[in-house]
Amino acid sequence: MQMIKNMLQGVLVGCAIYVVSLACHWQLFTLSPQRALELILTSAVIGAFSWLLQTDRLSFVQSMVSHMLATLLCLVGANFVFGWDWLSSFAWLNFGLPFIIIYLLVWLAWWLQAQITVRQINAKLRQH
Q1: Domain regions of the chain by residue span
Q2: What does the UniProt keyword field contain (predicted)?
Q3: Which of 7, 64, 78, 111 is the most exposed place for a label (fewest CB within 10 A)?
Q4: Cα separation of 42 and 82, whole Å?
């Protein structure tokens, strides 16, 4: 059940990133029914990797680096499987910098959510 929740959250984050990128006049690709399904599938797979952020077996830094690398590999794989052409010729610069910026923003949101959760748990523990 947690895996499905992670995948759905991944889809929400992926779709939100696409909409925000459009609002910033940075079109990742022309949207079509096929591209929308590819975006949803890729986002769900990235969301499935969220278990890396939830495990106690890795340190915080190990979790973040592992998730970032898994996300990068997923996007590179999707680029080739779906023919997105993000990584052709000099497109690495057009892909790399936005990837890092977007990943840092998503990480910041995840970190803030974790901080809020920790504070809520600590408040409940203090009550008992």
Answers
A1: 2-127
A2: Membrane, Transmembrane, Transmembrane helix
A3: 111
A4: 10
